[in-house]
Amino acid sequence: MKRGLVVQKFGGSSVANVQRIQNVAKRVAGYRKKGYDLVVVVSALGDTTDELIALSERINKNPSEREMDMLLSTGEQASSALLAMAIHKLGYDAISLTGAQVGIITDMQHTKAKIVNISADKIKEELKNGKIVIVAGFQGMTPNHDITTLGRGGSDLTAVALAKTLNADICEIYTDVNGVYTADPRIEPKAKKLSSITFDEMLEMASLGAQVMQSRSIEVAKKFNVTIHVRSSFNKKPGTIICKEVKRMEEFVISGVTLNKNEAKITICNVPDKPGLAAKIFKEVSGGGINVDMIVQNVSHTRQTDISFTVNRSQAVKAVRLTKKIAQKVGAGLVLKDEDIARISIVGVGMKSHPGVAARMFEALAKHGINIEMISTSDISISCIIKKRFGEKAVRALHSKFGLS
Amino acid sequence: MKRGLVVQKFGGSSVANVQRIQNVAKRVAGYRKKGYDLVVVVSALGDTTDELIALSERINKNPSEREMDMLLSTGEQASSALLAMAIHKLGYDAISLTGAQVGIITDMQHTKAKIVNISADKIKEELKNGKIVIVAGFQGMTPNHDITTLGRGGSDLTAVALAKTLNADICEIYTDVNGVYTADPRIEPKAKKLSSITFDEMLEMASLGAQVMQSRSIEVAKKFNVTIHVRSSFNKKPGTIICKEVKRMEEFVISGVTLNKNEAKITICNVPDKPGLAAKIFKEVSGGGINVDMIVQNVSHTRQTDISFTVNRSQAVKAVRLTKKIAQKVGAGLVLKDEDIARISIVGVGMKSHPGVAARMFEALAKHGINIEMISTSDISISCIIKKRFGEKAVRALHSKFGLS
Question: Which residue of B has its CA nearest to A135?
Answer without folding.
Answer: B70
